[in-house]
Specification:
The chain is about 50% helix and about 15% strand. The strands form three sheets. The chain has a three-stranded mixed beta sheet with strand order 1-5-6, with helices on both faces. The protein has a three-stranded antiparallel beta sheet with strand order 2-4-3. Strands 7-9-8 form a three-stranded mixed beta sheet, covered by helices on one side. Helix 1 (about 10-30) runs antiparallel to helix 5 and helix 5 crosses helix 11. The chain is an alpha/beta fold.
């Protein structure tokens, strides 16, 4: 008997997993990404800086006998890549293109049916912050999925600058903002409307927020979102999203894309 949430891969499963891993890493390599191998565990500080509250809460923690500091089995790879880029590769010219293949560990409740040991293959593009960089990562993802033999798939594009811009008036109350953001992300219309009425939000603003739930679909979503609000942060977010979409459309990838501004 083995612990809940972990698995043993038998020969056939191992063969298939390795084939998927090779295909993905080969695609990264073709795009100029270099593989790195991060350590299995690190000090908690690395993940506290940018690992997300949920990942920190679910991490397996233990004490380093030598220093007394708290260590964790890595719950995610991205914070480790950030550490490598900002320290060991700090002097390297940007952009940095790094990829990895490694297991991560998160404590998940048994009833959720989730694994506690997860296999991640991924890449990080560090340095550029333009539309071309966003389009590169999406194009690479499409190429990987095609290489794995998938044909009928969709990638959903969002834009947090737009969503957060529309919800920015609620940021003065972080707990309420978090509830609103959760309802929008989960498409919980009735609960969202109840929350807005509870806070006596006026009808015009209520309409804008509830409209976020309907901003899902094809290219027409961008036009519908543009007339919803004239907030500069929202318009800037939409413009950036359109730039990314135009690059992907020029590569004939539009059939793989959907928009979800909620």
């Amino acid at each position: 008997m083995i612990p809940k949430g972990v698995a043993t891969f038998l020969p056939e499963g191992t063969r298939r997993r390795r084939a998927i891993e090779r295909e993905i890493l080969s695609a990264f390599n073709r795009w100029g990404y270099q593989e790195v191998i991060p350590p299995l565990f690190e000090y908690l500080d690395v993940f506290s800086l940018g690992g997300g509250e949920e990942n920190i809460d679910s991490a397996y923690k233990f004490i380093d006998r030598a220093t007394g500091r708290i260590m964790v089995l890595r719950p995610d790879i991205t914070p480790q890549i950030a550490r490598v880029a900002s320290t060991l590769l700090a002097g390297q010219p940007r952009p940095l293109r790094l990829c990895y293949s490694a297991n991560v560990f998160r404590h998940q409740e048994e009833h959720a049916g989730r694994e506690r040991e997860l296999f991640q293959v991924g890449g990080e593009l560090i340095g550029p912050a333009d539309a071309e960089a966003d389009a590169e990562m999406i194009s690479l993802t499409i190429e990987i999925l095609q290489g794995l033999g998938l044909k009928d798939f969709r990638i959903t594009l969002g834009q947090m600058a737009f969503t957060r811009g529309l919800l920015s008036r609620f940021m003065v109350s972080p707990p309420f903002f978090k509830k609103i953001l959760h309802c929008v992300a989960k498409k919980e219309a009735s609960q969202l409307e109840s929350l807005l009425k509870q806070e006596a939000v006026n009808q015009k603003i209520r309409h804008e927020i509830l409209s976020l739930l309907d901003l899902f679909g094809g290219e027409e979503v961008l036009a519908r979102a543009a007339v919803l609000t004239d907030l500069p942060s929202c318009q800037a977010g939409l413009q950036r999203l359109k730039e990314v979409y135009d690059i992907l459309k020029a590569a004939d990838y539009q059939d793989y894309l959907l928009f979800d501004l909620g």
